[in-house]
C-alpha cells in the first residue's frame, strides 16, 4: 500500500482493470490516484478546501474512453475527476509551472479535471455510487462531449440516476434522470415520483 495520506484512510477503490487505486483520507480535501504496478502516485485532485468525509469512490467501467473517478462526500456534493493523461500532458506543456511542479501537483491545481454537482444528496447522509457508463456523444453545439451516467444510493433509501455531459472546452451540464425511494419500491408504494432534491 503506497504512503497515500497523512490522515487515516476513509475510502479506497480499484479501477476495473486493476491499473489504478484511488484513496481519500478522513480529512477528505485531497483524493489521490496511484498506479498499482509501480506503487506510485499518478494524480492528486483537490476536492475542496474544507474537510469533508468521503463516503464513496468509483471508477468508470470504460476502457476506450478517458478514465473517470467520482466521489460523494458528507457535504452532499458529487465530484467528478478526469484521468486523461494525454490531455493533461498537452495542457501542462503550455504552462509555466510544468517545468518546476510535478504533474500530479498540477492536476490538483487544474480545475479542468474537476466538475462538481452540489446538493446531490442530503448533507451528512452516507451514500454509495457507481459509474454505469461513459459514452461519446454529440451535443447541440456540435462539440464532442462525454456522457456519463452515475447511480447513487443513499443510506436512507434513495436511488438517483444522474446524466452528466462534459465537453473538451470544460463545459458541463447535468440532468437528474430518475429518482425514487427503494424502501417504497420494495413495499409496493406508488410514491416513486414524489421525492425532491434537498
From TrEMBL:
Keywords: Repeat, WD repeat. Signal peptide: none annotated. It comes from the Eukaryota. InterPro entries: PROPPIN, WD40/YVTN_repeat-like_dom_sf, WD40_repeat_dom_sf. Pfam families: PROPPIN. Belongs to the WD repeat PROPPIN family. This is Autophagy-related protein 18b. The gene is LOC100279118.
